[in-house]
Amino acid sequence: MVFDLRDLSVPIVVAPMAGGPSTPELAAAGAEAGGLGFVPAGYLTAPAFAQRLEAARRLTSGPLGANLFVPQPSTAVAADVEAYAARLAGEAQRYGVSLGEPHYFDEDWDAKIEVLLDIRPAVVSFTFGLPSVAERKRLTDAGITTVATVTTTEEARQAVGCGVDVLAAQGPSAGGHRGTFDPVAAPSEQSLEDLISALVGTYELPVVAAGGLMTAADVDRVRQAGAVAAQLGTAFLCADEAGSTPVHRAALRGGDFTETAVTKAFSGRYARGLRNRFIDEYDVHAPLAYPEVHYLTSPLRAGAARANDPQAVNIWAGTGFAQIQAGPVRAIMAVLY
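Predicted structure:
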């Protein structure tokens, strides 16, 4: 029998945050506190993903989720990526690094599906698209609850057609990458409440709300709108169990940053983070070329982090970041619900 998110004793989902913040310890702590924790597979090889998912499972008997990035056909134009690399040469020199090699990565998709079928987490969610119907059916037959991250009613329609069990509605205030299926489409600005209302009014599937949620009032608001649970990421970036870098934590809590911006400058895909010098100078020049730009800028971002300079690091965060709290996951969740 598949896991029902309506059965969570605490209707809080600790969002998957690929690239470091989501550790096995963070996912397990969310489950131990009565919610649902996620292990993200993004940017990892299948063996590395399996290792982290197994590590989380050893830390808790509670429900765990896994999140997969769905690979899309590359939208990169080689000349545009090369021009962007040339423009970034001075930044690489500033931080004493070489730019990365822009390349396409299919996320070890097929192998990661096999990891899921082998380890069988309670839940798997998908970002940037959907599995095939056949892949979804294999996961369902293995007893895994399937969740589609959607940002529009059209994406929800496709997800329902795929046969998923749950819709995760992601609003425009979300930190990190928007889950938009089309990698070159401008992200939807429809409010989270309106999206929840549209989904709840059209489909019988449970809806999880995500995007900029930081407080108990936020959680209550989306549940009143019809969501069965609230998914929060930014709220846990400064948790003791999170893998957020020191520069990320300091930027979020230091008071030097006052706003977020949606940018393609760091990864070649639209994502929301603290507005810094790099976004201001390079967003207009960055091509929509994901994941090529992600790999191009990765060493540069790492170099800036080593220099403790948040001005050239992707400090992913939702619009409510100023309300972030530090401490153990259990304490943060206790304040939220």
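Summary: The mean pLDDT is 97.
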